[in-house]
Amino acid sequence: MTFFSTKRLGAFGAVLTLLAVSPSYASTGNGDASVKILRAITVTKSADLYFGKILPSASAATVAVAESGARTCGAGLGCYDTASSGAFHVVGTNGEVVSVSLDSTTATLSDGASHAMTVDLGTSTSSLTLAGGAGDFSVAGTLNVGANQVDGTYTGQYSVSVNYQ
Amino acid sequence: MPRRFITSCPRTCVGAATVLCALLASTSASATAVAGAASVTIVAPVIAREEAPLAFGSIDSSSSGVVLTVNPDGTTRCSRAASCTGRASPAIFALTGTAGERVGVTVTDHATLSSAAGDSLQVALTLGSPQLDLIAGKARVAIGGEIIVPAGQAPGGYHGAFHVDVDYQ
What span is annotated as the signal peptide, if there is one (chain B) (predicted)? Predict the structure, then answer.
C-alpha cells in the first residue's frame, strides 16, 4: 500500500515548483565576433629623389625639388638634367588608411671621398587611403650645396615607413 | 549584445582576447619601411677655349662673286678655285669639364666680319657637333662657315667674332 505523508508531498511539490521556475530564468544569446584580415603592406620605390647636375658657385645655395618634381635652382647655381622627386607605391588592403612617415627629415649625400651635403626631406602625405588597394606618395627635398662644392656624384638614402591606422 | 555574450560566457571572452592579440601582432607585422635613394651630380665648370680661329684665307672677288665653304671637318669648297688661296680652316674649341658628362654646344647662326674701313661680310656658321661627351673631361668641337663675297667687295682684312655656348645636359 502506498501513501504519501504530508511532509513528502510537500517536498515533491517544491521540486515541481523548482522545475517550473527554472525555464523562465534560462537565456540564450547570440554574440558577434569579427576580424578583419589585412593584407601585408608592401612599399616599393618608384623614383629616386634626384637633383640633377649642379654647377656650384662661390657661395652656398640650395636646390629644391618639389613633390611635383619641379626644381628651384638657387642663386648662382647652374642646374642641368631633369630632376625628380622621390616616389613610392603602396599596396595593401583596399579602402584601408595607412600612415606615412619619414624616419628622418634629413639625409646625407656623400661622394665616398669625405665630401658631403645634407638634404632636408619632406612629404605632404601623412596618411593615404588605399583606393583600389594601392596608393602613391612623393617625397620632396632641398639640397644644401656648399660654396665651391667639390664635383662628383653624391648619393645617400632615407627611409619611409607605412603602417595601417 | 556582445557585452551580454561576454558576461555569460567567460571562455568566449578569453577567446576574443586571443583573437585581438593576434590581430595586433598581425598589424604590427604589416608595417613596412623602405629606403629611398637621393642623388646629385656636382659638375665642374665647363670651359671652352679657342684653339684655332675660323679662317677663310684670301679671296679674290675682283672679277666675280665667290662662295667659300669651310666645313667643320676641315674640307673646303670654293666656287671659283683660283680665287681662294691661303689657309682656310674651321674654328676649333677645346672643352674641359667633368669627366663622363655630356655637353651641348650651340653657336650663333651668323657672324659679321668687318674691315677697318667699315665694310662688312656675313658668314653663315656650321656647328660640327651639337653634343659631345667629355671623355676624361675633355672634348673638341669644330665650327665651320660659309662666306659669300660679292664681286667688287672692298679689299682689306675682315674680322669678326661669334659666340659659342657650351652647357651640361
Answer: 1-31
Query: B-chain residues within 8 Å CB-CB of A143?
Result: 40
Q: Which of A101, A119, A123 is nearest to A156 (CA)?
A: A119
Sorting pLDDT into bands at 50, 70 and 90, what band is A23? Answer: low
Residues 55-74 of A with CB under 8 A from B: 55-56, 63
| Interface predicted TM-score of the whole assembly (ipTM), two decimals | 0.79
First to last CA, chain B: 70
Report the pLDDT value the prediction gives residue A36, as an integer from 0 to 100: 86
Topology annotation, domain B47-168 = Immunoglobulin-like (2.60.40)
Which of A93, A153, A165 is best to mutate for the B interface (most B CBs within 10 A)?
A153
Cβ contact, residue pair B168, A80, below 8 Å:
yes
Q: What is the pLDDT of residues B109-156, one digit of tens each?
A: 999 999 999 999 999 999 999 999 999 999 999 999 999 999 999 999
Cell numbers placing A64: 629644391
Q: B167: distance to nearest CA of chain A, Å?
A: 8
Q: Which CATH number fits domain A42-164: 2.30.30, 1.10.4160, 2.40.30, 2.60.40?
A: 2.60.40
Cell numbers at residue B139, please? 672634348
Q: Measured between CB atoms, does B19 come within 8 Å of chain A?
A: yes
In chain B, which segments carry CATH 2.60.40?
Answer: 47-168
Q: How far apart, in whole angstroms, are the C-alpha atoms of residue B57 and residue B82?
A: 12
Please tell me whether residue A6 adopts helix, strand or coil conformation: helix
Under an 8 A CB cutoff, do A81 and B168 touch? Answer: yes
Contact between A145 and B42 under an 8 Å Cβ cutoff? The reply is yes
Q: Give the model's confidence band at A24: pLDDT under 50 very low, under 70 low, under 90 confident, else very high.
A: low
Tell me how long chain B is: 169
